[in-house]
Amino acid sequence: MAQKPYHGDGPDDWLRFVPVASAYALKACGVESASSWKRLAINTATSYVLSCGTTWALKHAIHERRPDGTDNRAFPSGHATVAFAGAAILDKEFRHVSPWISVGGYAVATGVAVDRLVRNRHEWHDVVAGAAIGVGGTWLGYWLGDKITGKSSRYQVGFDGNCVSLAVKL
């Protein structure tokens, strides 16, 4: 089968960050989110570490060739992972305000996934796997983050401009 040419970088390169940036922008503008700033930051970081770490590990373990032949890091789609993780964060934080905020986040993430297909960077199973990892990593990230920051947590996280510290109550 002949390889289709690479179509260059496109809007997917920056659109993948729109859902998570929207969550922070809405919170900064005073829209009531489900989390404090601390909880949002910890859960976002935990979600992205889990999601992107899983995607990175799979890309380096599976070695699936891209449809355009540029490299062998196609599976799963990192762009879809980042976009859908952000959409899941936006959903968890602002669904209570309006379900349309969630719809918008997932619509942008879907647009990123479709653009990856159109630009011949991925096959459909790459972007579906990336989307599932992004959403699943966010759900797990919120669960773990809440173990750290919840009211009955044995853990306390502090930020002081130079470092992040974790204290465990014994």
Structural features, described:
The chain has 170 residues and is mainly alpha-helical. The chain has one domain (12-168). Helices cover 61% and strands 6% of the residues. It contains six helices and two strands. Strands 1-2 form a two-stranded antiparallel ribbon. It comes from Hallella faecis. InterPro entries: PAP2/HPO, PAP2/HPO_sf. Residues 37-142 form the Phosphatidic acid phosphatase type 2/haloperoxidase domain. This is Phosphatase PAP2 family protein. It holds the Pfam family PAP2.
Strands, helices and their partners?
Blueprint: H1 12-15, H2 18-28, H3 37-62, H4 78-94, H5 99-118, H6 124-149, E1 155-159, E2 164-168
Antiparallel strand pairs: 1-2
Helix pairs in contact: 2-4, 2-5, 3-4, 3-6, 4-5, 4-6, 5-6
Q: Going across the major beta sheet, what is the strand order?
A: 1-2
Largest sheet geometry: 2 strands, antiparallel
**Overall pLDDT score:** 87
User: How much helix is in the residues?
Assistant: 55-70%
Distance between the termini: 61 Å
Helix and strand element order: HHHHHHEE
Could you tell me the number of beta strands? 2
Tally of separate domains: 1
Uncertain residue segments: none
Secondary-structure-derived class: mainly alpha
Proportion in β-strands? 5-15%
CA-based gyration radius: 17 Å
| Count of alpha and pi helical runs | 6
Shape: globular
Pfam families: PAP2 (PF01569)
Protein name: Phosphatase PAP2 family protein
Organism: Hallella faecis
Domain Phosphatidic acid phosphatase type 2/haloperoxidase: 37-142
